[in-house]
Amino acid sequence: MYKDQIQLIDETIFSTPKKVGYIVGAGDKVPEALLQLGHTVDILQESDIVLSKLSQYAAVVVGIRAYNIHEWLTNKNDVLNQYIENGGHLIVQYLKNNLVGNKRVKVGPYDFSVSGVRVTEENAPVEFLNSKHPIMNYPNLISEKDFDNWVQERSTYQMEPVKAPYEAFFQMKDSNDAPTKGSLVTASYGKGYFTYVSLVLFRQLPAGVPGSYKLLANLIAATANK
Fold this sequence. Notes:
By secondary structure, the chain is α/β, with parallel strands linked by helices. The chain has helices spanning 30-36, 51-54, 66-69, 71-75, 77-85, 201-204, 210-221, and strands at residues 3-4, 7-8, 19-23, 40-43, 59-62, 89-93, 99-100, 103-104, 126-128, 167-168, 170-172, 184-189, 192-197. The radius of gyration is 16 Å and the shape is globular.
């Protein structure tokens, strides 16, 4: 289904094609993966972050470290929250810290803070915490098998601790470390969702890891079941 040099997926992956907005951060191949899943992808600039434009997207995905690079994302947080409240899904890939320059970032509709917690062992066991949530079930059933053959690491710069109204999906840890829950978290807001993804999908997608495609497809489809 997805080919990058010699990487090839030979597994059925279900997707519900949507129109997706993408905000580029430090650079990754997630837009290409979204296209491979059948989605239409528009690259968004600062001038595009207005409700009249955002309302057409089932999801808006933010690239890695984008909030640490673009101060305008913090300045546009209220608009992005309105987009979520109206039924959109804002999916934010990892932040390296809580600052953009000398200013604290504003991310999502609820208190948000990232930590330096990482899970660097790519084979670290993964415990499922929220298996009944739609994100774990539609359009693909996510299972332990989807964490097989990951490369380099599991997660980076997690939300810790995870507090309500955020919901955690996985618990994992490196050897001899305490277990952590902040690798994938979501919160309902109005008719939509805000999701923080510190799982390193951006590494797994180019490597052709089937589970990363399933997770991405499910994240984009999330609001269909809300």
